[in-house]
Every structure is written in C-alpha cells, then in structure tokens.
Amino acid sequence: MTLSLPKAKSILKTMLRETRLKLEATTSADSKTAEEQLKVKKWIYRKSFPHPYMVYQCTQDLKKENELLSKIDTLGLDQKRAFEVMDINAYLHDIGRLREVDFSTGLFLNNEQKKQTNFTHARESYVILKELGEKDPNILLPIKYHDARNFDEAINQDSEFQNLSKPEKEKVLFFSRILTDADKMSNILEVSQKGLLGRLELMDPKYKPEAKISPKVKEAILKGENPNREDETTRADALARFATWTKNLDFEASKTVAKQYMNGIFNHIKAEMTPQNENQAFIKDVSEIYTYLKEPAQRPRIITNKINKTRG
Length: 312
Hints:
By secondary structure, the protein is mainly alpha-helical. Helices cover 63% and strands 1% of the residues.
C-alpha cells in the first residue's frame, strides 16, 4: 500500500469513530468510574485529532525552510511526495494512542499491562500501519521512533533500518527530524498556553502538585538530555521536560517557535509554587534551568544524522 494524505485522514477518522463507539459501550454506572472514563474519552479525542492537526500545521511551517528544501534536493526526493509523506506522518504518528485503552473497562492501560505487552503508543502506531499494508520506511520508521528518548541508539538497532542502504537511511533520518520537530513544536505551543490541562500527567497521581524539581530531572536537563519520565515525580518535572524540548530542535522555524513560547511554559512551572508552599530551592532550580535553556545551543538536537558506521 502507498499511503496518500486523503487515505491517511480517512484512516484516522475511521479509527477514531470505532474507538469512540467502543468507549461509549463501556460507560459505568458507578459515578467515580464514569468520571474517569469521561477523562479518557476527552483525552483520546484531543490526542487523535486536534494534536495531529497541530503537528500538521507545524509541518507546514517547516516546509518553508530553505534548509529543508535544500535537503530534499540533496537526497534526490520528489518534493511533492516528500511534502505528502511529512503530512501523512503528522496525521498518523499518534494513532497508536487509540489502543492505549483497555476497552473492557474504558480506562487507560495500566503500567503492568503496558509492560506485559511492551506497549508504547509510537510502536503501536507503527504496528497499525504495518497491519494496513504500509511498507514505506519513510513513514514507518519515523513514526515508530518519534517518541524515542535515545533516537540514534534505538533506530540503529532496528533490523529494518539496518537493512536499508546508506542513502535510504539518510532519507529516514530526514523525515524523522521533521516529524520530531513538528511534534515538539505543537506540544511546546500547547503547554505554553494551557500548561498540563488535558494531558496524561494531570491524570496520573504520580505527578504531585509540588513546587519541586526532582534531582535527576534537573541533572538530565543541565547535561543537555531529555529527562527520563520514570524520574519525574511532580507536575513541575513534566513541565520542565517540555521546556527542555526548546533546546533540542533541528530547524530554524522550530527554534523561532521555541523562543516565543518558552516563557509561557516557565510561567506554568512557577505557578506550581504558591505563597503557601514557597520553596527557595525550587526557585533556584527553576532559575538555573531557565538560564541554561536560554543559552544558544552548540548543536541543538537530540536526533542527529549519525548512522552507525558498522551497519549497511
């Protein structure tokens, strides 16, 4: 199957409709459970349509970049098809979220369920597209690894990627850079405006409403790394993760967005401290992180063009 943008939109619309019907069938008579199920429904809707559309819009900004247009020519890509692949990836990168629900309960899969199946929404998006017959590595692999914390390591260990020629690998990495930047841009925009409103972190009890940056989160940020979500314990930690993304973008259009909206994210971080829970250590940590992220980056990216030289 060769996906087109209209087909991608149709897949997303169909899967969203089917998921909604399944969720409606699980509505509980217990008011507390029903309330949790309603949160799931609202979250599924936000992640399965408004978010992909925002990523799509951010992708349109990237298409104006001379660096991107030049790279398309260098890689020998057809510009029209390259633009369509970018749009398809934007719309379908998160369809695995629609399987992040236990339809027997209408609630999110718990951590134990995810561990048993090695579930991640990015991998599940890849699985869905494979089930539909998609074979284009420029769609499959960028989607499969768009949420990878250590992208280079993860993709270089992938057998599909290893079997590609060097020029093919360069194309996959190019489309990965675009999808990851657009995804981060859309999240930076949303979090700067709404904070964690409507996000999983606000529904997860592990994220405490405390004026605190966890030590491992601060350490990772100041080392130029994305924090490990397992080390996050507060809402401020989660917000700091999104702020970190402003340092790890590839394209100038992305960096411009980051500069405009980073202050908004930090306003939400600082709002975690109230007069009742004033914390000097928190103020110091936030100030250090803000100063670091404002500094120009030597090479502001987590995803690189590095290809494991021992492979194909």
